[in-house]
Design a protein that fits this description.
This protein has 205 residues and is α+β, with helices and mostly antiparallel strands. The chain has three helices and eight strands. The strands form two sheets. Strands 2, 3, 4, 5, 6 and 7 form a six-stranded mixed β-sheet that branches. The protein has a two-stranded antiparallel ribbon with strand order 1-8. A hairpin with a 2-residue loop joins strand 4 (39-49) and strand 5. It is elongated. The protein binds zinc ion (2 copies). Residues 67, 69-70, 72, 137-138, 142 line the site of one zinc ion.
């Protein structure tokens, strides 16, 4: 909750506020988010306008998550800007709500001041979640994991699997040989042992 008492209700009044608040639960998406209780650094500019208080600000928060490619833990930061209008509640009929004919009819989306206070949490939540990377990576060129064995390719750049691939090709050739209608599976053993098939078609016999 933030306070607008010092701002006053004279349109045009301005006030800047810096505050650090604890992150609420659930401030994130599946792969990355702000840990509960982590510090959210909030910088606000409050401006008193006819209908209420216009809040413009920036939030900065630490993130925890994992790289979607290599699954390494990530420590990043998110910065998000937001602007939100907190209207004076019509029902409470604030004294200053004089001949303001342009009173808006209860727009579902609008947020209201609660006395002198306003609740910034939903605003911060939307701003932070929208600013999160949907596919966070530890670095832009993260090579990810080997699709065959799951090793981290960044740790092992020369990693390759020619042999495993060949074994599988060989197994397919075996199968193809066995399924051959005329039963001619000659050459099957030779091919299974050949380490460097590179996907060449098995020679017909
Ligand atoms: Zn990565
Ligand atoms: Zn591998």
């Amino acid at each position: 909750m933030f306070d607008t008492r010092e701002l006053g209700r004279r349109p045009g009044a301005l006030r800047r506020v810096s505050r650090t608040v604890e992150a609420p639960e659930g401030l994130g998406i599946e792969v990355i988010g702000v840990p509960v209780g982590a510090p959210l650094d909030v910088e606000l500019r409050l401006e008193s306008v006819m209908e209420g208080v216009l809040v413009t600000g920036t939030v900065r928060a630490p993130l925890a998550g994992e790289c979607v490619r290599c699954l390494e833990p990530l420590a990043q930061e998110v910065t998000a800007d937001f602007q939100e209008m907190f209207s004076y509640p019509e029902s409470e009929g604030p004294a200053r709500r004089q001949a303001d004919a342009a009173d808006e009819e209860g727009d579902e989306e609008s947020l209201f001041l609660q006395g002198d206070l306003f609740d910034l949490e939903p605003v911060l939540r939307d701003a932070v979640v929208l600013a999160l990377p949907l596919q966070p990576v530890c670095r832009e060129d993260c090579p990810g994991l080997c699709p065959d064995c799951g090793v981290q390719l960044a740790q092992d750049p020369d990693h390759h699997h020619d042999d495993a691939v060949d074994i599988r090709w060989a197994a397919l050739r075996d199968l193809a040989g066995q399924l051959r209608p005329d039963g001619s599976s000659a050459g099957q053993d030779k091919q299974a042992k050949a380490p460097r098939g590179r996907g060449d078609d098995p020679q017909e016999t």
